[in-house]
Specification:
About 35% of the residues lie in helices and about 20% in strands. The protein is of the alpha/beta class and about 325 residues long. It has one domain: TIM Barrel. β7 (about 215-220) and β8 (about 225-235) form a beta hairpin.
Length: about 325
């Protein structure tokens, strides 16, 4: 039999998907699901930085039309917004969910039902938003949903602070990775996102995601079927270190990465109390970021004009 698509159907057929779900569940016993490796026994109700015990929480799930065009398509992406996060970005635009724990506990069975309901609405994919701390729950739910007929791809929509151990369990499960590359400086990552090793962990994670899925491939309708789309949010006063982030991508991942260079920053959450973050981007700051993108040969993907994403250069080949 030839390879099935979405990719997780191959693992379901061999029993590997259930095995990985069991392996991932054991990671909760002394939690090492994300790079923080808090060590609490989440199976016994303990929590670490993410404040999430064994049962994941979900803030909302719906068809979402605001992702990159090859993700949202015409019928939307089936976004599931998980409560909490393993970062604490002072400028987080979704801080009620990520910081204030807005959401309700959802069993793996309930999460599987959400996936199937979204598929029934006609969405193009299941989009797991802020999933890094709930990988075991996602794998268990996916196994149930796939057995019950789920047949659309998974999008792993992450801050990019992911552990290599968790990502390896997702190899052959996730078809489309949608990670951030937030910072070039651990000093800024600690100050603004409460994480001391973001740069190293992020770079290892991005390389692993690229190894698994490679460049974006699209179907005849312009929808992504597989690949990595890498997001970078430009911050005021070069706090993100945009040029250095882009240099790393071009040098150590590939100039064929599809990039989404975002200018949508505004001072949300606690950012208004920090003078260096208490303003929107200037036109000059974003223009400099775009110039860096093009100078480095990163000419596949999107730049943002007002609230719209525009294609840059040659987009990936269709399949």
């Amino acid at each position: 039999m030839g390879k099935l698509w979405p990719s997780y159907l191959n693992l379901l057929e061999t029993g590997e998907l259930h095995r990985r779900a069991e392996v991932a569940r054991e990671m909760l016993r002394a939690c090492r699901v994300c790079p923080r490796r808090c060590g609490g026994n989440r199976l016994a109700g303990e929590t670490g930085f993410c404040l999430t015990p064994e049962v994941a929480s979900v803030a909302s799930y719906n068809d979402h039309h605001g992702e990159e065009p090859c993700i949202s398509g015409t019928r939307g992406s089936g976004n599931i917004f998980f409560t909490s996060c393993n970062l604490r970005c002072v400028f987080c635009q979704n801080f009620p969910i990520s910081h204030l724990q807005v959401g309700q506990p959802v069993t793996c069975e309930g999460l599987a039902e959400m996936m199937l309901e979204l598929e029934g609405r006609g969405v193009h994919n299941i989009n797991l938003v802020t999933p890094s701390h709930v990988v075991p729950q996602i794998l268990a739910a996916l196994a149930l949903a796939a057995e019950r007929g789920l047949r659309i791809p998974l999008v792993y929509n992450t801050s990019g602070y992911d552990s290599l151990e968790s990502l390896r369990l997702l190899d052959g499960v996730v078809d489309i990775y949608l990670p951030d590359a937030k910072y070039a400086s651990n000093e800024n990552a600690l100050k603004y996102s409460k994480v001391a090793d973001y740069v190293e962990a992020n770079r290892v994670a991005l390389k692993e995601m690229w190894r698994q899925v490679g460049p974006v491939a699209m179907d005849g309708d312009g929808l992504a079927r597989r690949g990595m789309i890498l997001r970078h949010l430009v911050l005021p006063n070069n706090i993100a270190g945009t040029r250095e982030v882009l240099e790393f991508i071009a040098r150590e991942i590939s100039p064929n990465v599809t990039l989404s260079l975002m200018n949508q920053y505004f001072p949300a959450n606690q950012a208004h109390s920090l003078p260096e973050l208490n303003r929107e981007l200037t036109v000059e700051e974003y223009k400099a970021a775009v110039n860096s993108l093009l100078a480095l040969g990163l000419d596949k993907g999107y730049v943002q004009e007002n609230d719209y994403l525009e294609v840059v250069g040659d987009f990936p080949a269709r399949i």
